[in-house]
Specification:
Elements (H helix, E strand, L loop, with lengths): L1 E7 L4 E8 L13 E5 L15 E3 H5 L4 H11 L3 H12 L2 E3 L3 H12 L7 H7 L1
Antiparallel strand pairs: 1-2, 1-3, 4-5
């Protein structure tokens, strides 16, 4: 089943979302006045598989540039998801770059724009 976003053509405001096999011209949201556009989810992907290296937290954090580390700490103060990720990292004794949670966390940072494109793979694979 596909998710469709209904956007009013007059002002380009999304007014509704629904799941269906094909677009449906709902009453008041006909095709003549509303666009029914398929919603495509973007899932971040690391181009190269992680090596699964286990390292200390310090070794792992040194894979980030100084600017990246400062950005992460600054944004974490106002982003609960990032704050939680950083707290988990702080609580860890070691970091395994092949662990699914580590991979997902670094991919999240890249997808959120906190790391440049391609940096997740560089950080995970050293």
């Amino acid at each position: 089943m596909t998710t469709y976003a209904v956007t009013r053509q007059s002002d380009q405001v999304e007014v509704y979302r629904y799941n269906a096999d094909a677009p449906i011209p709902w009453g008041g949201m006909e095709f003549a006045t509303h666009d029914h556009t398929e919603v495509v989810e973007v899932v971040p992907v690391v181009d190269t598989p992680a090596t699964g290296r286990v390292m200390t937290r310090l070794e792992f954090l040194r894979r980030f540039t100084g600017e990246e580390r400062i950005t992460l700490r600054t944004v974490a103060k106002q982003n609960p998801a990032l704050e939680d990720y950083m707290a988990l990292l702080d609580a860890a004794q070691d970091v395994n770059t092949g662990d699914p949670d580590t991979i997902a966390g670094v991919q999240f940072l890249e997808a959120a724009g906190l790391l440049a494109a391609g940096r997740a793979g560089e950080i995970l694979n050293g």
